[in-house]
Amino acid sequence: LYSSTHQAQTKAAIEKSALRRTLTIQDMHEYLKRLSLNLSHDIAIIHITGTKGKGSTACFCESILRRQYGLQTGMFTSPHLVDIRERIRINGQPVSKSVFAEAYFHIRDQLEEFSDPQSSDLPTL
Question: What number of other Cβ atoms are within 10 A of residue 85's Cβ?
Fold first, then answer.
């Protein structure tokens, strides 16, 4: 994803990309629609923001929910230190290479196949 194919190369492209950052919530809704994902069902989400301690706080909350309340959990943190799979944990365990690869390529393939002239300004992969 860090190849020149996926990065803005010209001043105009960089400016367009910067402007798009103001639309990230709308973009995420569009990507979810393209993937046929509906998050309107009952799912509890904890979104942690701030400048310091987000990862530790997320791990603490995830552990309490899983161990004290027996809930199934999924956690995404960023950035990773060594391996991108560090970012994603399911029930306290990092996702395996095979699960990550399968999910990544499934989503990537779906997004690359989508073609809609009405959404031509939406970032592509």
Answer: 16
Cβ neighbourhood burial of 52 (10 Å; 0-12, 13-18, 19+): exposed
Contact of 57 with 48, CB cutoff 8 Å: yes
- Its pTM stands at 0.65
* Buried b or exposed e, range 56-76, using 16+ CB within 10 angstroms: eebeeebeebbeeeeeebebe
* 86-121 tens-digit pLDDT: 899 999 999 999 999 999 999 888 888 776 555 555
Query: Measured on CA atoms in the order 51, 18, 105, 29, is the torsion positive or negative?
Result: positive
pLDDT band at residue 6, thresholds of 50, 70 and 90?
low
Burial class (CB in 10 A: 0-12, 13-18, 19+), 18: exposed
Closest CA to 76 of 51, 94, 96, 102: 94
Reading the block at residue 106, the tokens are 């499934």
Residue 121 three-state SS: coil
Q: Beta strand pairing status for 74-76 and 88-90?
A: antiparallel
